[in-house]
Every structure is written in C-alpha cells, then in structure tokens.
Amino acid sequence: xxxxxxxxxxxxxxxxxxxxxxxxxxxxxxxxxxxxxxxxxxxxxxxxxxxxxxxxxxxxxxxxxxxxxxxxxxxxxxxxxxxxxxxxxxxxxxxxxxxxxxxxxxxxxxxxxxxxxxxxxxxxxxxxxxxxxxxxxxxxxxxxxxxxxxxxxxxxx
Length: 157
Hints:
By secondary structure, this protein is mainly alpha-helical. It has a single domain (3-154), classed as Four Helix Bundle (Hemerythrin (Met), subunit A) (Up-down Bundle). It is 76% helix and 0% strand. It contains five helices and no strands. The chain has helices at 3-33, 36-64, 74-81, 96-114, 122-154. It is elongated and about 55 Å long. The model has no long low-confidence stretch (mean pLDDT 91).
C-alpha cells in the first residue's frame, strides 16, 4: 500500500470511528430514558454501532487482502480474520479483549435484524451497552495502533 492509500484508509477508518462513537453515545442516552420506545431506540443504535465496526473491518480486509467472500458466515469470519496478524500483509486489528464483546454485539445485531417480534429485556440491553462502551472506548486506540504498525511495516513512516 502506498502513502496515499494509507492516508485514505486512515481517513475512512476515522469516519467509521465517528459513527461508532456517536451510536454508542446515543444508545446510552436512549437506554437511560427507561421506556419501551427508548429500549427500541437503544437497540437500533447498538446495531448502528456494530454496522460501523463491521464497515471498518471490511475496509481493512479489502485494503490488505482484497478477498472477502460473500458467503454465509462471513460476518463471524471477518472478526476472526481481523483478530490475527498476517505476516507480510498486515498486523492484527482487533485486540483479544474485544473479541467476545464484538461477538455479542454481532449476535444481537443478527437477532435485531432477523427477528419477527422482539421485546427488549432491560438487563440484556444493559449488558450489551457495557460491551458497546468497551468496544467504542478502545476503537480509536486500536485504529491508531494498527495504522502505526502498518506504516512501520510498509516503510511509510
């Protein structure tokens, strides 16, 4: 990857972070209201957060591997793939402590999108908010660390 490609990727990832952080903040605000409509709004924002993270992950995978198969199961495969380093290609992106919260958020997004009828348990939403905050809080540092490693590995410092 050349310097311009790396700068472009970094700008796109920063925008994905902006969306993810906004969704995390809004999910927390909506949940605090405490009623059913607020829980639905919170759930929507949690899905929006995960969508932004998945978009960020797709950008990285496409930029370095250019091989995202659109098969069943690619959503979970993407998390696994970006949790490992590929020597000579790219470092790992997702730190190990984020893998479990990301799996939980992905699973929730799947249920939210595909369920015919849903009632949101405040306790479960509270746990998902905890996961969302953990991920959102670590995302900016994960991108910075990743981009620094890529720059160093590619000789673009």
